[in-house]
Amino acid sequence: MADKYEVFEQLGDLEKTLTMTLAQVAHIRQVLETSITENATLRMELEKLRERLAEFEKKEVKKETPKDQPNPNLIQIFNEGFHVCHLHYAERLAEGESCLDCLELLYR
Ligand SMILES: [Zn+2]
């Protein structure tokens, strides 16, 4: 059996390693969180541009504007847990949270 000093030394090493690993996990979590939010923001920006482009193209060919349908891409982003409303734009929804502003925007 290893002497007490050796055991404590090993525990100390293990503790250091675990602390470093935890810090790495926290960092990776933060990076992932940031890129997920950024991704949602970009997809919403893309939707806005698509809508603007569609408006623009309709004007070009002078077609009648069809009845407004809920935007399926925005619905998907909302269902993935992000606000699509202007007030909380691209913020994460809390677990089980809903938002009247988002629903109003999607289904008005
Ligand atoms: Zn919202």
Automatic annotation (TrEMBL):
Which UniProt keywords are present, listed alphabetically? Answer: Coiled coil, Cytoplasm, DNA replication, DNA replication inhibitor, Metal-binding, Zinc
The yes or no answer to whether the keyword Zinc is present is: yes
* GO process terms (BP): DNA replication; negative regulation of DNA replication
Molecular function via GO? metal ion binding
Which InterPro entries does the UniProt record give?
YabA
Determine if Chaperone is one of this entry's keywords: no
The parts of the chain that form a coiled coil are 32-59
This one is known as: DNA replication initiation control protein YabA
> Lineage of this protein's species?
Bacteria, Bacillati, Bacillota, Bacilli, Lactobacillales
